[in-house]
Design goal:
- The protein is mainly α and 252 residues long.
- It is built from eight helices and two strands.
- Helix 1 packs parallel to helix 8.
C-alpha cells in the first residue's frame, strides 16, 4: 500500500489478499492479515482513520456473529454454558471467530487501500487502459464518499453548535442530534450529486471517442508481473476452494 506503488498494483494486492483470505478460510491466516494490515496502516500514517472506520463497521458485525453463532449454533456439541435455549458452544465460538477474522481482514485491507491510494492516479491509470469512464467515476466516488461525508458532517455540526444546538448530554440527546444532522447531510449530498452531474455533462463526460489524461503514472514491469501472479494465485485459490468443497458424487 506504499505511495510508490502503481494504483492498480495496490488495488490488485488488496483485492487478491481479500480473495485469498476468504478462500483459505483459516482464522490464523486471517489474524496474520489483520496484524500485517495494522502495521502497514501505522507505517503509512493512516491508522488514525483506518482503525476507527473499521471499528464502526466490524463492531456490530462481530456482535451479531457472537449472538447468532456463539449462542445459537445448532451444530455445537461441546457446551460451555447454557441459559435456556441459548448455548455457548466451542464449535459456535470457533465458527464465529472464523467469520469475524475473515471479515476483519477483508475490511481492513480494503480500507487501507481506500485511505492510501491516490484517486487521481487511479483514474488516470484506468483511463490509459481504456476502462469506461463511468466505472472510473463510480470507483472514485466510492473512495472519496466517506471523507466527503465526514467533512460535511463536521461542518454541519459546527454550524449547529454556532446556532446554540446542544449536541452533548445523554444518549437521547445524542440520538436527537444525529437525526438533526442527517437531514442536512442527505440534502447536501443530493445537491452535490446534481452539481457534479451538470459539471460532468458540460465537460462531455458521456460523449463517445477516446480519452486521454494529463497525469502520467509510472508502471514498472516488476509491478505488472506482480499483478499477473497475484491474479493467477487468487484464481487458483478460488478454484481449489471450490474443488475441495464441492460435494462428492454419490453412487449412480
Amino acid at each position: 500500500m506504499s505511495p510508490r506503488l502503481h494504483p492498480l498494483t495496490a488495488l490488485t494486492a488488496a483485492a487478491c489478499t481479500a480473495v485469498l483470505t476468504t478462500a483459505a478460510a483459516s482464522w490464523p491466516l486471517s489474524i496474520v492479515v489483520v496484524l500485517a494490515t495494522g502495521v502497514l496502516a501505522v507505517r503509512s500514517g493512516v491508522a488514525g482513520r483506518v482503525l476507527p472506520a473499521a471499528a464502526v463497521i466490524l463492531a456490530p458485525w462481530c456482535l451479531s456473529l457472537l449472538v447468532l453463532h456463539g449462542l445459537f449454533f445448532p451444530e455445537g456439541h461441546t457446551v460451555l454454558a447454557q441459559w435456556g435455549p441459548a448455548r455457548v458452544t466451542t464449535e459456535g465460538l470457533g465458527f464465529a471467530l472464523d467469520l469475524a477474522s475473515r471479515t476483519a481482514a477483508c475490511v481492513l485491507v480494503l480500507l487501507l487501500f481506500s485511505f492510501t491510494v491516490s484517486v487521481p492516479d487511479l483514474i488516470a491509470a484506468l483511463t490509459l487502459r481504456r476502462v469506461p469512464p463511468q466505472f472510473g467515476f463510480i470507483l472514485a466516488s466510492t473512495l472519496t464518499l466517506v471523507p466527503a461525508m465526514a467533512g460535511r458532517l463536521d461542518r454541519i455540526r459546527q454550524a449547529q453548535e454556532a446556532r446554540g444546538l446542544v449536541l452533548g448530554g445523554g444518549m437521547l440527546s445524542r440520538l436527537a442530534a444525529v437525526r438533526l444532522q442527517m437531514v442536512p447531510l442527505v440534502l447536501g449530498l443530493i445537491e452535490d450529486a446534481g452539481a457534479r452531474a451538470q459539471a460532468l455533462d458540460a465537460r462531455g463526460f458521456g460523449g463517445p471517442g477516446p480519452r486521454s489524461s494529463y497525469r502520467t503514472v509510472d508502471d514498472p514491469p516488476a509491478q505488472r508481473l506482480f499483478r499477473a501472479l497475484a491474479l493467477l494465485l487468487a484464481f487458483c485459490a478460488v478454484a481449489l476452494r471450490l474443488a475441495f468443497s464441492w460435494p462428492a458424487a454419490g453412487p449412480g
